[in-house]
Amino acid sequence: MIRAALTELSAALPAALVPGAVQPRTASFLPDWLNPDVFLRDSPLGPWIVVVICLIIFAETGLLIGFFLPGDSMLFTAGLLVATGAINFNIWLLALLVVVAAIIGNQVGYLIGAKVGPSLFSRPDSRFFKQENVRKAHAFFERHGGQSLILARFVPIIRTFVPVIAGVAGMERRKFFVYNVLGAIPWAAGVTLLGAWLGQYAWVGKNIDLIFIVIVLVSIIPIIVEFVKGWLEKRRAAGAVPAADRAEENEPER
What we know:
Helix content is about 65%, strand content about 0%. Helix 5 (about 90-115) packs across helix 8, helix 5 (about 90-115) packs antiparallel against helix 9 and helix 6 (about 130-145) crosses helix 8. It is mainly α. The protein starts with a helix and ends with a helix.
């Protein structure tokens, strides 16, 4: 009787608390070709899917047309699938490879900016290129300087263009490389290892789309902060001008 009761009790425990295999995924809000849970899971490439992961990270961080690729969500999913055995690969080696891919990607972006220079700002909009993205990245870089290379790693789209802007601005190569490495390690390795750690819990696998939404929301926090700061600065600047005008009007004539 006691054994039966314990069996019933263990069956009633929430799956979220029980480490184990990832459950079948739910319907995704992402198209299949952008959903890492689709193109990484059960890939016929086996461990060679890691090459695809590294190429995507390289393109997203180094090529102007790679801004739409799934960076954060793919790293998290890759770590999760390695932890659950869906991808047969060493998690520490995966973390090292994606860091290297992220570093090389940013270096290529820097070289593109150094070569293209000011012509980048006069390039017309197209399906895969928007001047607005360049302007936002430029403002981000101007505000944070070298630290923007670290912060931009965690901001979608911005992380694609900031290294290019650094090249356009003529940032010293050695300084760029240092900030590049300091940003790549916590982003590429950190998000991958976070996915591996949380991937051992079945609830995470069953709610991977919810995790993707959380990742996106967290990643746009810096953008929201920058927008609010800019809006407040404009408000203060707009309020300072009329106040100065009123002071001049009220000043007694001599």
